[in-house]
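Hi there, hope your week has been kind to you so far. No rush at all, and the record is pasted right below.
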Amino acid sequence: MSTATASGDVEVRELPSVEILGVTVHAVSMKGAVYAIEGFIRDGGPSMVITADTSGIVLAQHDRQWMDIMNGANLVTPDSIGVVWAARRLGTPVRERVTGVDLMDILCSRASQKGYRVYLLGAAPGVAEQAAEKMQQRHPKLHVVGARHGFLSPDEEAEVVREIRSLGVDILFVAMGIPRQEKFIFEHLYEMAAKVSIGVGGSFDVWSGNVRRAPKFVRAMRLEWLWRLLLNPRKWRKALTLPQFIWLVVTRGRR
């Protein structure tokens, strides 16, 4: 997959970036990420956006396909505080996290203003529909053209790919967990022909109201990862990737 170019004055490939353990992450703010994504929409795509967190980068150390997908994406944002820390340590300051859950909300706001066609794919049965309904309440003019769960048989997967293509989707949000969601997007990117496809992890659970997001003061203290772990102790394996990530950055730095 080749790197695409955003419309307007900014080429995404010319944005400041940093290589973190072999993964190139763009040093973008939320505003810059939204600007670039709207450029992809104007260009007509298809383009792929990845929000890179520490667990994803650690996983890429042992999954070559996933590493290649990350490095072939059109835009890779710094999703977690660990990635922001690593970028600064490696000499490329990053001002803020650009998380999937926040990016989804802001893009839905822009979609409601500009008429972008949005599709939600993923999470457990019923959750995508709930998230779509809540998003339409937050952004009354939002045009959600489809919402489906992510537990698909091969036949259902082929059906949903055809459906997305037929609907002329501008922004496709996929919530299947890292890296399954990105591998799904990569495999079907040109078949679906959505202008922009973004993996957003557990964002549907948050926006549907099924999972409570950390309060703002917890996020300000950079402890959202701990909040998620306390709410769902089964994610302890993912939490353990943070100290592993820090160790790798300290001992290996740039590749």
